[in-house]
Automatic annotation (TrEMBL):
Gene3D superfamilies: Hypothetical protein, domain 2 (1.10.340.30). GO terms for molecular function: DNA-3-methyladenine glycosylase activity; metal ion binding. Pfam families: Adenine_glyco. Keywords: Metal-binding, Zinc. The keyword Zinc applies. Zn(2+) binds at residue 188. GO terms for biological process: base-excision repair. It comes from the Bacteria. This is DNA-3-methyladenine glycosylase I. InterPro entries: Adenine_glyco (IPR005019), DNA-3mA_glycosylase (IPR052891), DNA_glycosylase (IPR011257).
Length: 208
């Protein structure tokens, strides 16, 4: 039977796995938490997609973005930076009429501009190398939701670095969420079944 885990802010599921409250009930969020969130993303397209989706999420729930993710992928050519970099005004108008995505002109234009910035970054070694260069020396070990940071010195530096290269909707808080999502930091709560699972930040002696 599902119930509260004795550790704060964790829920013990019927499957015997412990998850944070936000991932404990909605099947979509649970699947995302169990299989994707916090796992390393080191390819250009994957990072470009996640930068865009984190930008679209600003002011909305992540569940909303996940439900719209298939439509986002269809609308943005599966987040192929080379294709999206070629989008023009007619494409922006088309996207603004697409009810399947978040119809926000600034965010849509930022996604197009971010594709162009991603392509341009190849001359400097590429987006993955830049993003992962801001991996900190240590990761947080939060035991409660209140202990999970919302930004860091590294996310502030990453935000500045991306903005300097033409990226938009990449503020420090948004970039910290990106760093959590792609494994650069591990903010799974201590006691969660996913803590240390990325391989980037193994738990000391394998213990939660």
């Amino acid at each position: 039977m599902q119930g509260m885990d004795p550790r704060p802010d964790l829920v013990l599921g019927a499957d015997g796995l412990t998850r944070p409250v936000w991932a404990a009930t909605d099947p979509l969020l649970q699947a995302y938490y169990d299989t994707e969130w916090g796992m390393p993303v080191r390819d250009e397209r994957g990072l470009y997609e996640r930068i865009c989706l984190e930008g679209f999420q600003a002011g909305l729930s992540w569940a909303t973005i996940l439900r719209k993710r298939p439509a986002f992928r269809a609308a943005f050519a599966d987040f192929d930076p080379d294709v999206v970099a070629g989008f023009g005004d007619s494409d922006v108008d088309r996207l603004l009429a697409d009810a399947g995505i978040v119809r926000h002109r600034g965010k849509i234009e930022a996604a197009v501009g971010n594709a162009r910035a991603t392509v341009a970054l190849r001359a400097e070694g590429g987006l993955p190398g830049l993003v992962w260069s801001f991996r900190p020396a240590a990761t947080p070990r939060p035991r409660t939701a209140a202990e999970v940071p919302t930004r860091s010195a590294e996310s502030e530096d990453l935000s500045r670095a991306l903005r300097a290269r033409g990226f938009r909707f990449v503020g420090p808080t948004t970039m910290y969420a990106l760093m959590e999502a792609v494994g650069i930091v591990d903010t799974h709560l201590v006691g969660s079944h996913r803590r240390g699972s990325s391989g980037v930040w193994p738990e000391p002696d394998g213990r939660a």
